[in-house]
Amino acid sequence: xxxxxxQNAWISISILSLVFASILLSVGGLIWRxxxxxxxxxxxxxxxxxxxxxxxxxxxxxxxxxxLESRARISxxxxxxxxxxxxxxxxxxxxxxxxx
Length: 100
Known about the structure:
There is one protein chain. By secondary structure, this protein is an all-alpha fold. It is built from 2 helices and no strands. The protein has one domain (2-91). Helix content is 80%, strand content 0%. The longest helix is centred in the middle third of the chain and has 68 residues, at 2-69.
């Protein structure tokens, strides 16, 4: 009888130990998964921030390109660096030709 009680106690302790170990493993897995999710969210925020900076830079470059391609700037550069000027009416020659 005493032997049976010891055996039952041993089985109960073993089962409780397994249950406790299972709970610890489950909680550990949950914590690991949550930490990985938080790392992924932090990386996603960083990528979104980088994308936002890149889009702002792209917008600024497009604005700068439009300024550089403007007729006023091209005319001023042509006058200053190439010595060109706006033609007078007497300097304009219309050529007759076939249009395709």
